Amino acid sequence: MGIPTLALTQFRRRAIEEVDGSVLPACFVLEPHMHVTAGVVASLQPASVLQIHGGARRTADATIAETIEHAVEKLGVRTIVVCAEDTYPPEMTPRREHLLASAQALTDHLWLERLFRDHDVRVEALWLDVVEGDIHRWDPEQRRFELLADSGLSDLLATMRRRAGIFDA
Fold first, then answer.
1. In the chain, N or C terminus with fewer CB closer than 10 Å?
2. Does residue 116 carry a pLDDT above 50?
């Protein structure tokens, strides 16, 4: 994958400022090869990170569901964020379908679907363009990826906190 750009470095810096030392009530799902994404995720200080070879589509593996259950029930996670990274924006590669299928596999999993419904958990999909340093968020209502601009990060983090019952002062 590419080298992180100035845009990604600035995103990390804003993430650190936004988090302000608190744990983000979210569980990020990554594949082991996602080195750039792992750095961005670490900047956000999430409650949980799950690295799965083959992506979240492997929900038949009970340890995946159990780890997510622990994050929801014990760590207060109310947002699961499935991530992908590539050297292209999502609209330019069919790999985006892998990301969306992984996110859908979590919401379709019988055990997790019930857990998510009972705890009001939402599954998000984020795409990192490691060449441009852009981060795209899947908007299920618009059925497309949207570029997270400057205010997009703040909005996303605030939404994750609100879902977990944490309100900014």
1. C
2. yes
